[in-house]
Design brief:
It is built from 9 helices and 20 strands. It is an alpha+beta fold and 348 residues long. It folds into 2 domains: 2-230, P-loop containing nucleotide triphosphate hydrolases (Rossmann fold, 3-Layer(aba) Sandwich); 235-346, OB fold (Dihydrolipoamide Acetyltransferase, E2P). The protein binds adenosine-5'-diphosphate and magnesium ion (MG).
């Protein structure tokens, strides 16, 4: 439905967007994930028509929106500081945009009712919004945006101002609400948990381009670069050098590790990075002569609820590993990563 083509945007001669392209399909929730300052809000503003790119195009159902002003695009944009009207009630806030559109009174009343229902706040209709909690206010802001039936909804870090517990809870609610509305959504965040929890498709914006896109599962399984792996917090990235090509072996500061054969050819002496995921660590207290196993010392052991997060010191390198058992700080352990669980990224 939406097609963003090769957006280029500079600020003060500094390139911000260097060719951003992506599409959003019907009813799809697309998350645009990027560090602060990567240009996420700028992408939304360009789609909304609040800003013009140097080049590139925004198409809606195949039609170029270059000459369509913001208010004719029919898109909804909700910012982090969603600014409800403090002197109005919940219902009045939801009704505001509908009144601006001069809809008939009974239709406004009906849409406000539906909006309140969708956020399960029917009994809050006549409360001033200043009496609501942060999470409730956020839901009202969303209902207000949805009441206008935008053909595309863009949310710019809508949960950014809320604390972590509330965010986790709202992610699930938000997902249900957005799913029900069937409106295509672009959801901007710098928080990977939010992105993983919400997205049908995830786009990673970095240095002006979409570095990788796919389902959260695809990105989790197959990050395209060490940067993506690190940004998504997938695990330990360890520098190494190819020591042998058949079988492929990489020498790190703490061990020589067998790794899966790569599609691209690697040569001996080539520098690379290995991704060792904490959840793939095999730990034992006995030093058995297994391949891809090495000794380390427990530096920290933290209870995380479903597992213990261990910080291991291995030949001067610190590695995170998950364990079902707690470990004694200072104790020696043997850690092992099966070759097939290791990912290799040749340095470019
Ligand atoms: P994000 O939303 O990912 O944090 P933004 O899209 O807000 O990133 O902007 C990224 C950078 O682009 C900002 O840090 C700023 O340097 C620059 N920028 C954005 N808007 C403007 C503007 N109107 N004028 C000058 N520079 C801007
Ligand atoms: Mg922003």
């Amino acid at each position: 439905m939406l097609e963003v083509q090769n957006l280029i945007k500079d600020y003060e001669n500094k390139p911000l967007l260097k060719g951003v392209s992506f599409t959003v399909d019907k009813g799809q929730l697309v998350c645009l994930l990027g560090a602060s300052g990567s240009g996420k809000s700028t992408v939304l503003r360009i789609i909304a028509g609040l800003e013009e790119p140097q080049s590139g195009a925004v198409l809606w159902q195949g039609q170029n929106l270059r000459d369509t002003p913001t208010h004719k695009r029919g898109f909804g944009l909700m910012f982090q500081d969603y600014a409800l009207f403090p002197h109005k009630t919940v219902a009045q806030n939801i009704a505001f945009g509908l009144q601006m559109q001069r809809l008939p009174e009974d239709e406004i009343a009906q849409r406000v009712r539906a909006g309140l229902e969708s956020i399960r706040m029917q009994s809050f209709a006549d409360r001033p919004v200043t009496e609501l909690s942060g999470g409730e206010q956020q839901r009202v802001a969303l209902a207000r945006a949805l009441a206008l039936s935008p053909s595309l909804l863009m949310l710019d870090e809508p949960l950014g101002a809320l604390d972590h517990t509330l965010r986790t809870q709202l992610i699930q609610e938000l997902r249900a609400m957005l799913r029900q509305s069937q409106i295509p959504v672009i959801y901007v965040t710098h928080d990977r948990e939010e992105a993983f929890g919400l997205a049908d498709r995830l786009l990673i914006l970095h240095e002006g381009v979409i570095l990788q896109q796919g389902t959260p599962q695809e990105l989790f399984k197959q990050p395209a670069s060490p940067w993506v792996a690190e940004f998504l917090g997938l695990g330990n990235l360890v520098p190494g050098v190819v020591s042998q090509t058949e079988p492929l072996t990489v020498k790190t500061a703490f061990a020589e590790l067998s790794v899966p054969t790569q599609r691209q050819t690697l040569v001996a002496g080539q520098e690379c990075k290995l991704l060792l995921r904490p959840e793939d660590a095999l730990l034992s207290s006995a030093a058995t002569p297994e391949s891809n196993a090495f000794g380390c010392v427990v530096r920290d052991s933290r209870f995380m609820g479903e597992y213990h997060q261990l910080e291991l010191l291995c030949g001067g390198v610190s590695l995170l590993a998950r364990s079902q058992e707690p470990a004694q700080i200072g104790a020696g352990l043997q850690a092992q990563w099966s070759p097939e669980r290791i990912q290799v990224f040749p340095n470019s």
